[in-house]
Design a protein that fits this description.
By secondary structure, the protein is of the alpha/beta class. It is built from 15 helices and eleven strands.
């Protein structure tokens, strides 16, 4: 404790520093599950995502009192109620902004952001892309069911062109976002995609996202069985998975199919396309590289809809300094040069003050 006091310039240790050297207690799924009744529609894909997270948390060597789940508005936004951790249910679209404040003020915390495609990509789109480009240390889970579920079935920013809903009776004219492309374009250093029918793959993807220091964005294909049932069935139905889901594995050729007879290959112009393994030269078959941002973006554009062979797994994983760490360094440097600030004195100093 003496060393801690010295590091803090004589101030008493902060709460998280007192537990820094204490072993993390063993927990189970039950320890991470709140006493609140889980209330989603029967059969909703949110249940499987919640279970995957609650099963994973005991394996991450983290404390419940140092974990925060932040959400906005929507079906997915009920998530913090069901986790026995700290939580913050914010207003529509603002979860990334709220989480940015938490993560930068308390870099010791594990901060997760949970929301749906409507919440994060409509009113919350600006907050999301800036959290990603800044590389705030957040694990962001975006449930994509291509519909507004909580408000009873309007088209969302990921709904396909021509989608007939209560708010588009003649079919939506809006071209949808590709969330993975959007995240890569916003310079997110970690971008991945699982689906809600494969718990093992979800858990492994969430584990990697959590281990990544910085902004980790995970799009989850999630079925809304009431307002958009079967949106991803072409991919996720058990009989279809081998031939429709393209598993990305770093350092491995991108080969798929029940008999490993299909692949992703480059044509003469360098464009990616799905092909039969026997129809292309071996050196044309793409080898996945998570550090290659151009490849990650090209893979994200491989399928134009969830009715074509579609990549899943980690598209991009790149290490770079996170926003909170850089901010802490700036504050430490400023404090060393000018001494600690006095916020109370500043607030009570009158209508004007001199900077510098």
């Amino acid at each position: 404790m003496t060393d801690t006091v010295a590091r803090n310039g004589g101030a008493p240790p902060r709460p998280w520093e007192l537990t820094a050297e204490v072993p993390v207690p063993e927990t189970t799924k039950k320890d991470w599950s709140s006493d609140q009744e889980v209330r989603w529609c029967p059969g909703c894909g949110d249940y499987s995502i919640l279970t995957a997270v609650q099963l994973l948390m005991p394996e991450l060597d983290v404390r419940r009192e140092e974990t925060v789940f932040v959400s906005g508005i929507g079906c997915a936004a009920r998530f913090p109620y069901y986790m026995d951790t700290y939580g913050f249910h914010g207003i529509h679209g603002r979860a990334p902004a709220i989480a940015t404040g938490i993560a930068t003020a308390r870099p010791d915390l594990d901060v997760w952001v949970v929301g749906g495609d409507g919440d994060m990509l409509s009113i919350g789109g600006n907050h999301l892309i800036h959290a990603l480009r800044r590389n705030v240390n957040l694990t962001i889970l975006m449930f994509n069911n291509q519909i507004y579920g909580l408000t009873k079935g309007q088209f969302s920013p990921t709904s396909e062109v021509g989608k007939v809903t209560k708010s588009s009776p003649l079919g939506s004219l809006d071209r949808p976002f590709n969330p993975v492309s959007l995240a890569i374009g916003a310079e997110a250093p970690f971008v991945a995609r699982p689906h809600d029918m494969d718990r093992k793959h979800m858990m492994e993807t969430f584990r990697r996202a959590h281990a990544h220091r910085g902004a980790a964005f995970v799009e989850i294909y999630q079925n809304c069985n009431v307002f958009n049932d079967g949106a991803f069935e072409s991919l996720t139905a058990k009989a279809n998975r081998a031939d429709m889901l393209i598993q990305l594995t770093h350092g491995q050729p991108v080969v798929f199919g029940a008999d490993s007879d299909r692949c992703v290959a480059r044509d003469d112009a360098g464009r990616l396309a799905v092909a039969a393994v026997d129809d292309v030269a071996p050196d044309r078959i793409v080898v996945h590289d998570e550090t290659d941002v151009a490849l990650a973006f090209s893979l994200s554009r491989l399928a134009s809809s969830p009715h074509e062979p579609t990549p899943v797994g980690v598209f991009r994983s790149e290490t770079r300094p996170d926003y909170g760490s850089q901010m802490a360094e700036q504050v430490a440097e400023a404090t060393e040069r000018r001494g600690p600030g006095d916020l109370d004195a500043l607030l009570r100093s009158g209508a004007t003050w001199t900077v510098g």
